[in-house]
Every structure is written in structure tokens, then in C-alpha cells.
Design a protein that fits this description.
mainly beta, two-stranded antiparallel sheet, 5 helices, 13 strands
């Protein structure tokens, strides 16, 4: 029953975004914060408690058949001359191909919700655009371009935090990136989306109810280890090895 109630609350909180009377513009105020940690943090507090959980790597796909796409922001630095811009450096991975990228993420708008499930805090959202350029000297590289949104809250000390207040609710997600990747050589764009805990615009690919669960029909497109590690029977053969694959820090040079 608790999960059902929390799930309904999460749905309501998302619906707030479309109700003009239920949000307060926070765009000017967001300039006074550095939001870089919300995009790079490795752990966070849940449900306004002292409990800390690790933040898993973003989930993503590229192109047709939801080919698995991995991305890791190594550094996000606020532009000292423009507090709404952030310099991003990271790495991407598709199959066994790993590429460096760098670019700019721009916060365009921020808002606070008029009402919060946790009255002690002010909950909100900021959104904007991004453009990341992979190293053209590497194999199979191109440009990522699109839009994103991130949920946050302001704590009692006035600090901005990653919003995991409804972490146990069905459908929890954050840091949602939706856009395209365009190959330098061909100029052909491919849909490329990623996010924390869920992936935006996943169609019939995400068949999970309470949590992300890739449809097994797409297992051959890079999702077999994920399915074995977290979805299939934990007593099935290969689970331990699959979890090692999933926890590999592939962005660190060996």
C-alpha cells in the first residue's frame, strides 16, 4: 500500500509541471547555485533521511533497437563568466567503443513547485540544453545534442540537493537527457537518450513496472548482462559475472 501511495504522489509531482498555477519561476535564483554536483554525484540521501545510497551509472540507448549506450560525466564545471553554463567532460561507450567528449550544458529555466510532498523543503526542477563533441580523432565519433531536466530540492540550510525524496516510488527518475547523436562523417542523426534510473522516450523497450527493466527482446543489443545481473532469477548461472560487468568502471583508463 505504501508503494502505491508513493507512486501516486510521484505521478502527481510530475503533473505539476504542466500546471501554470502550481509552479514558481526560479530561473533568476538558480544562478546563485552551482548544480554541477547533481550531475556527477556518486551517492545521495533518500527520503529526507540520513540513509545514503549509491547512484548507479546512467541508463541509455542509441539508434534503432535500443542499442545500449553508456555515458559518464567525469567533470562538470560552472562557467565563472556565465553561471548558467557548465563545461562538461566525459566518456561515452557503445559496444566496446569508448570515446572522449567535451561540451557545454546550459540551464535555461528553473522552477519551484508551489506544494511539496515534504513541506520542510522546496522542491523544483531546472531544464535546458546540451551539446557535447566527441574526439574526432577517435573511432565512430559525433555530436550529442538535445535537452535535459533535473529534479532538485533546497534543504533547510539553503543548499541545493539531488531530489530523491520519492526514491521508493514507482517510476523514480532524474537527470533525464533526450536528444540525438550525429556522426561527424555521415551527418546522420540517431536518437540518443539517457537518464538516472529510467530513460526518457523508451517506448516498449522499458517493460519494468516499479523499476527499469529492459524488454528481453532487446537483450542482444547490449542488455544481456543487465538482464542477468538485475532482472533474471538471481540464482541463474552467470549472475555474478554479469554483475561484475555492470559495475565495471569502464571510463577509467587501465
Amino acid at each position: 500500500m505504501k508503494n502505491i501511495i508513493l507512486g501516486l504522489l510521484a505521478i502527481i509531482s510530475v503533473q505539476v509541471l504542466g500546471q501554470n498555477n502550481d509552479k514558481i519561476d526560479f530561473t533568476t535564483e538558480i544562478k546563485g547555485f552551482d548544480i554541477s554536483n547533481l550531475l556527477t554525484l556518486s551517492e545521495f540521501n533518500i527520503e529526507a533521511s540520513d540513509e545514503i545510497v549509491g547512484r548507479p551509472e546512467p541508463l541509455g540507448y542509441i539508434g534503432e533497437n535500443y542499442l545500449r549506450f553508456r555515458i559518464h560525466f567525469i567533470s562538470v564545471i560552472q562557467n565563472p563568466k556565465n553561471s548558467m553554463e557548465y563545461f562538461v567532460y566525459g566518456k561515452s561507450k557503445v559496444k566496446n567503443n569508448i570515446c572522449d567528449f567535451q561540451g557545454i550544458l546550459t540551464v535555461e529555466k528553473a522552477m519551484l513547485f508551489a506544494e511539496s510532498e515534504f513541506p520542510t523543503f522546496k522542491q523544483g526542477l531546472f531544464n535546458g540544453k546540451y551539446e557535447f563533441f566527441e574526439n574526432p580523432n577517435q573511432k565512430g565519433t559525433g555530436v550529442f545534442k538535445g535537452r535535459f531536466h533535473t529534479f532538485f530540492y533546497i534543504d533547510t540550510d539553503g543548499k541545493i540537493k539531488y531530489d530523491a525524496l520519492m526514491f521508493v516510488a514507482d517510476g523514480f527518475e532524474n537527470n533525464q537527457f533526450e536528444g540525438t547523436w550525429t556522426n561527424y562523417n555521415s551527418g546522420n542523426p540517431k536518437k540518443c537518450n539517457w537518464g538516472d534510473f529510467r530513460i526518457p522516450d523508451s517506448g516498449n523497450f522499458d517493460s519494468g513496472a516499479g523499476e527499469f527493466g529492459p524488454n528481453s527482446k532487446y537483450a542482444e543489443f547490449g542488455w544481456e548482462s543487465y538482464l542477468k545481473a538485475w532482472i533474471y532469477n538471481p540464482n541463474s548461472p552467470g549472475v555474478e559475472e554479469a554483475r561484475k560487468v555492470e559495475s565495471e568502471k569502464w571510463w577509467i583508463e587501465k
